[in-house]
Amino acid sequence: MEADDLWIEYVAVATDPVERRVDAAAVEQGQADFGGLVRRMPSQHPLRAVHLAAYVDTRLAMYEADPQRSDLLTEALLAAHDSVRSQHRPAQRAVAELRLSRVLRVHADAQRRTDPRTAARTLDRAVSTAARAAARIRPDSLDHALGQHLHGLALEQRFHTTGRPADRDLAIAALRRSLDGPGLPAVCIAAGRALADIHADQLDWDSTAAALGRAVKLLDGFAPARMSHRSRERILENVKALASDAAAAELNRGSAAHALAVLEQGRCVIFAQTLQEAHDNAGAAHAEPAAL
Asked: Which superkingdom does the taxonomy of this entry point to (predicted)?
């Protein structure tokens, strides 16, 4: 049975069709079997690296939801290393290394509670892995922003651990490059928020407002867009939070007019998404009235 088929089968079995509740044990078993099947795939299989990446992401997400499950983090780390080895094209290998750097950052944070010295070495590996990957990505690639973002986050985490200003300055530079793109709007906006947080910690409200203002301008990349109701709700919550934070930063620097402007930009995005959802619902009702 192919990996995709196995995963779909377990998702179907794990979901109660009446109550629509997920059986966590069935999902856990499904993911474990899925990971085992992927690891047994031939190293040259064209989909092996793709499935490994999905396995890394799901195991890491499960660990972050339940930090007591250190076995999930170990599995994510092993699969992330395997994913890097499975990629032979430079661009794809760079993205796999970025995923590995994220897992290493989480691993370092877990180690910090019991073994700070080992945690510091793990974090150094996360920084160097992200730096190496980011350097391999072409500046005109959409993955450029992702590489700079994750490199910046690794440097920021090391700054909070060591207190070295050089790490903070390098993090600011990397996050600014990510914010300026090219890249997916969600990645660039996340970089802008991380950059703003660093400046806010320094009470540099001008730089904070500039980073958040740049991120708000990128919100047009989300509207209008066809997406699920749940995805749209999540996006709109982020829009509200981002616009509110940007307005607060403008007020902190004494610019009420700019605060109103960024709130208006956020309101326009929310209005556009609301109209799009109404249009989608009207289309569904017209096609099949029972759907609503």
From this structure: Bacteria
Higher per-residue pLDDT: 245 or 103: 103
CA 289 and chain centroid, separation: 37
Is residue 71 in some structural domain? Answer: yes
Structural domain contains residue 111:
no
Q: How far is CA 163 from CA 157, 167, 169, in A?
A: 10, 8, 11
Torsion of the alpha carbons at 143, 147, 153 and 156, rounded to the nearest 10: -140
Alpha-carbon distance of 125 to 142, in angstroms, equals 24
Evaluate whether 174 touches 200 at the Cβ level (below 8 Å).
no
The angle subtended at Cα 185 by Cα 266 and Cα 207, nearest 5°, is 65
Give me the amino acid identity at 285. Answer: A
- Rounded-to-integer distance, Cα 89 and Cα 175, Å: 26
Give the predicted TM-score (pTM) of the model. 0.75
Nearest to 34 by CA among 54, 49, 61, 17: 54
Count the domains in the chain: 1
Mean pLDDT of all residues in 266-288: 65
Using the structure block, give the residue that is written with the tokens 């960024």: 262
